[in-house]
Amino acid sequence: MTILVQIPPVLRYECGGARELAVAAATVRAALLQLKRDYPDLYRNVCDETGAVRRHVNLFVNNSFLYQRDGLDTELVSGDVLHIMPAVSGG
Amino acid sequence: MNEPSPPGPLDRYVRQMRYSPIGEEGQRRLLDSRVLICGCGALGSVLANTLARAGVGHLRIVDRDFLELNNLQRQVLYDEQDVEAGIPKAIAAQNRLRRINSQIEIEAFVADVAPANIAGLLEGVDLLLDGTDNFETRFLLNDASLKFRIPWVYGGCVGAEGQTMTILPGETPCLRCLLQDAPPPGSTATCDSAGIVAPIINVIASFQACEALKILAGHREAISRTLNLIEMWDNRLKQINLDGLLAAGGCPGCRGEEYPWLDGQRGSQTAVLCGRNSVQLSFPGRESLSLEMLARQLEGVGRVTSNRYLLRLAVDDYLLTVFPDGRAIIGGTEDVAEARSLYARYIGN
Predict the structure, then answer these.
(1) Are B162 and A87 a contacting pair at CB < 8 A?
(2) Which domains can be identified in chain A, with CATH numbers?
(3) Virtual CA dihedral for B76, B79, B83, B88, nearest 10 degrees?
(4) Which residues pair with B66 in a beta bridge?
(5) Is CATH 1.20.1050 correct for B270-346?
(6) Contact at 8 Å (CB) between B134 and B184?
(7) Residues B65-93: what's their mean pLDDT?
(8) What phi and psi, each to the nearest 5 degrees, are found at residue B231?
């Protein structure tokens, strides 16, 4: 199944400027692994060396945080949108 | 013929009072309120401007920076005369706000918000507003909010995107519930590295200011309970449900167990390097940063050179030397607040 990963503006440089990426994945973990293969620089901004989501980054599926679902094992269905949300520091 | 009667103290707020959720009672509450605005740059300018005009009776503004010409594109309280005069932002803001509303009390502090002074700054304050540009200060504000049970409204912007969230201690999730830790130095884009357009500032700060009006006018039921994300260039608005985040246990701060930024265990440690016109900043306990990524972020900001051990950025009259553990030596100043400001602007923390 194909889901969309929405890329925040600050990370688009890491994936050739794409606003969103279509990814075939059944879980959030599988989607991240595909990003690791295809866009390793992007992946490094989202996950650390152990595969854990970085502590200043949040992921959510549609409008729910992963903690409200099953974490990285959250299942995805076609049309779901996985958002990557790094902290925004300026002001 | 009778002379027209002088305006009453509430006359200037008549349109605002006509808005029924505020009314005269809400207006009187605003006039009796005391707000601390931390940082008076882009977000802080809009916050202070809006609240002064709305008649929040006591505004306390704290900022560590001086004005520069490139601030005027988005920092709406200031003008060319302020830049030419070379005065601190807090003072320029106070001068301007007094001309906008002479009936309210406006205090200005030229200071770096730190564990040593935050309790004093918060004395008597009903609400804390985030006009800062870095997470080190925001995590300190978050700790102080939780410990002293003072609500605060987070706002952050870069490029054309922004985030905001309202924190009512014990009632809604806090910043630390949302972000387990402050971003490692150099891991987030800053307004100096990624740029910033003014409209996102106005939108995010206006959202924060409206949350302030709700809280101060006694309408906590109307407060936003979501994380609000806006990407203006892409026309995306998202509201993320935070239900259950606090019920899931909350963070150690919400549980009242620890306030490491307030206690000084976290955040930067600084040392003036005598005779070198430099200040060293270090961040114990923080993740390491990627010098390669930082070099990319700083392209076009100044002259960047790097190797696997360090990165150097020469910008204006300063030389910033950054190490993979986030430590930096800021050359060109012995002023700790100025060094911290430069770090927040160019490296991000």
Answers:
(1) no
(2) 2-86 (3.10.20.30)
(3) -50
(4) B88
(5) no
(6) no
(7) 94
(8) -115, 95
Q: Model ipTM? A: 0.90
Phi–psi pair at B308, nearest 5 degrees: -70, -10
Count CA atoms closer than 13 A to B300's CA, side-chain side. Answer: 7
Tell if the CB–CB gap between B156 and A19 is shorter than 8 Å.
no
Q: Do A89 and B190 touch (CB under 8 A)?
A: yes
Task: Compute the nearest-CA separation of B7 from chain A (Å).
Answer: 37
Helices assigned H by DSSP within chain A? 28-38, 40-46
Greatest Cα pair distance, chain B, in angstroms, is 84
- Which residues of chain B have a CB within 8 Å of the CB of A54? 187, 287
pTM score: 0.89
CA distance A72 to chain B (A): 16
* Cα–Cα separations (whole angstroms), residue B5 to A35, A63, B8, B11, B97: 70, 55, 8, 12, 26
The pLDDT of residue A68 is above 80: no
Domain-by-domain residue ranges, chain B?
11-248, 270-346
Q: Which of B236, B168, B157, B138 is nearest to B203 (CA)?
A: B157
Residue B1 has what pLDDT? 58
pLDDT of residue B184: 78
Cβ(B188)–Cβ(B159) below 8 Å: no
- For residue range B2-33, list pLDDT tens digits in order: 777 878 889 999 999 999 999 999 999 999 99
Q: What is the structure's pLDDT at B308?
A: 84
Spelled out in words, what is the top-level CATH class assigned to the domain B11-248?
alpha beta
Contact state of A45 with B293 under an 8 Å Cβ cutoff: yes
B77 vs B65, higher pLDDT: B77
